[in-house]
Design brief:
By secondary structure, the protein is an alpha/beta fold. Helices cover about 20% and strands about 25% of the residues. The longest helix is centred in the middle third of the chain and has 16 residues, at about 160-175.
Amino acid sequence: MNDFIRSAVILSLFTLSLYGCGGDDSPPATPSDAALSTPDSSIPDASIIPDAEPRPDPFVGPTGPSAGCGNAEAPRGSMTRTLVATRIEREFILVVPDGYDPETPVALVFAWHGLGDSAAGFSRGLSFESESRNDAIVVYPHGRPALAGANGWDITAGGRDVDFFDAMLDELSSAYCIDTSRIFSMGFSYGGFFSNTLGCARGDVIRAIGPIGAAPTARSGCQGQVAAMIIHGEADATISFALGESARDLWTGKNGCSAESSPATPSACVAQNGCDEG
């Protein structure tokens, strides 16, 4: 298994009992994503997504501990936090393991909810093994009105929610001991769209992304490189399987992978071959 896929597998810090890497058992659309069934110009269509730019030179991401290492006063547990980004007060749920050691750098995982959901709702539906292992801090951001007025994300590379991500990352890196080589982003449906956005806009900061049931967003002007674990159900009636394949093809190209793949674990998954080292 090459480094690209190894880093993607790190995203299995979270366990998702409802979703697999393929097959015909994806869940039906929920009310939170019902608006995505209505045609809208902000939802990419596989037939009109432009070709990706030529892949960048192999990228070496950041490494080392963040400035917050050694801060014994940083609180632990699950808490709701607020900050100001783009002159708007924003909210997120922060989960810091009780056994967190301020001298030991840990991973930082951002988990973006689907359209119409909330930070609280999404946090109740996920179980991160890392929380019991004390080796990651998890962030559940809360969206603002987006598509059809439902809570969601600005999925443009220069939008308010990329600024929101930057503000959270700055604050948490200053307060907690973060391993800067293990910053991840995952999301479901519209949150997966935004994880694809961050993979492009902040690929020089994020190590890997895990979009679930989502489409690619920005194809040009991307920074750095990110590993990716793409999860999409073949029976998804809201975001087509073809769009999930398009996301796979995007990251395959940007990471220098070949079109060939090999069986991976779990058995429904495959790993692209020949990706850039690191």
